[in-house]
Design goal:
With about 270 residues, this protein is an alpha/beta fold. It is built from eight helices and eleven strands. The chain has one domain: Rossmann fold, CATH 3.40.50.
Amino acid sequence: MADKENCTHDCSTCNEKCSSRIEKYKPNEHSHIKKVYAVVSGKGGVGKSMVTSMLSTLTRREGYNVGVLDADITGPSMGKEFGLTGLAQGCDYGIIPMETTGGIKVVSMNMFLKNPTDPVVWRGSMINGAVQQFFTDVYWGDLDYMYIDMPPGTGDIPLTVYQSLPIDGIIIVTSPQDLVAMIVEKAVKMAKLMNVQIIGIVQNMSYFICPNCKEKHYIFGKNDIEKIAKDNGIKITAELPIDGELTKLSDSGQMEGFKGDYLDELIKELTK
């Protein structure tokens, strides 16, 4: 058994046969997924799901086949972001993901609840099993890109996803607070521990543009997000404004209609 003190939690670089070893899951035989990116945050309430919906929308606009796996089992929101309602169906090939107006395939826990407001009161093993099934038992078909909307923090689900799914990189979402550097540092350290590449960092609610003077106002304070990224070896940063239109689109399930070039540089990196 491997020495727990020296364990890197990266099973791909280890030949030890220990009880914690986890093999990478594969999609079902009728699905092929080229790239998998996880959207993560160190804390809740920073707009991670909104960023996931924006990234998937922009990638789809580039002409790619895109899927979204909502791994936030106890707090699912991707169906709401895209205005998807009802229950998921199945076929001989597996669970059929719902599809947005623009053609993005989505699987989220609310698609398996008769009442979307019913709580999912499950222990960790059941939640981990649901995330696995969303990847392995869903008939995703041929996807160029899959985005995984992660629950916040560095707990059980992020560990399971990093260890058992073929992640090609992560995008960290933060908010402009004094403790953002510490929160980013935690997410960065976990990613490095799991040998997962960090593609970029997105700071949501970064500023507000006054409709009268057209100047930027940093309502929650101004953090040097580029310095934080540089200190942690992250190449790409993006800032999202406080924008009532984005909130309106998110609340009404119409995120595919958003406008803005905030994430264009990040999309270029993800799709190159």
